[in-house]
Automatic annotation (TrEMBL):
Residues 95-199 form the DUF4440 domain. Gene3D superfamilies: 3.10.450.50. It comes from Terribacillus saccharophilus. Residues 62-89 are annotated as: Disordered. This is DUF4440 domain-containing protein. Residues 62-84 have a biased composition (Acidic residues).
Length: 207
């Protein structure tokens, strides 16, 4: 059986059963140039700029000798909490965080809808309680328009089934008649829902 390995600039390898040609057709145009900033493969968000190699290999049997079987059996009895934390990839969380920031700047309602949990709640810098629908509506109606959204000093703290991100974010744009131009500290709680990371809660403070 064949499988495809996607190697990222971080050295991380993503293994998938999707054919190499199918992946290439999905992320490139007719001239062979990347035409997507992000791609989701096997539930994993990948920044195409981080892809350095895509190759197909012949998959060998998972267990070739008794020692491998014994090691696999031992892994089944590992601490569930430790295993859950090990499954959380900071790289994946960093990618979905960046994807959300890009969606905010480009007013990509579809992407924001996919990245935000239906029960998402947010407390803004004025202390106001904002739901997912309220947040999306401000972008649909252009009540809030961002011309620049950039992140620095990001910290990612893995949790049992997701991660907490703490980022310094510079915002420029317009909110009603008021201009936005300042730095904020954003805290977001991401949770792995099935194969999709979604933000379930957040808060920001103005610096």
């Amino acid at each position: 059986m064949h499988q495809t390995i996607i190697t990222l600039s971080t050295g991380e390898e993503i293994h998938t059963k999707a054919p190499e040609q199918q992946i290439l057709e999905h992320i490139t145009n007719n001239q062979g140039m990347m035409n997507k900033a992000f791609v989701v493969i096997g539930g994993i968000h990948i920044a195409t700029a981080h892809i350095v190699k895509i190759e197909s290999i012949e998959q060998v049997d998972e267990f070739e000798n008794p020692d491998q079987v014994e090691q696999a059996e031992e892994s089944e009895y590992s601490d569930p909490e430790e295993q859950a934390n090990a499954d959380v990839s900071p790289n994946q969380v960093e990618l979905v965080e960046q994807e959300l920031l890009e969606a905010m700047q480009t007013r990509d309602i579809f992407a924001m809808d996919m990245l935000m949990h239906d029960d998402f709640v947010f407390i803004n810098h004025e202390g106001s309680y904002v739901t997912k629908e309220m947040d999306l509506e401000t972008h649909r109606t252009l009540a809030v328009r961002y011309t620049k959204v950039s992140s620095t000093d990001q910290q990612i703290k893995p949790t049992k089934d997701g991660a907490v991100t703490i980022s310094r974010i510079h915002l420029e744009g317009q909110a009603g008649d008021e201009k936005i131009n300042g730095d904020f500290i954003y805290t977001r709680v991401w949770q792995l829902i099935g194969e999709q990371y979604q933000v379930i809660a957040g808060h920001c403070s103005m610096l």
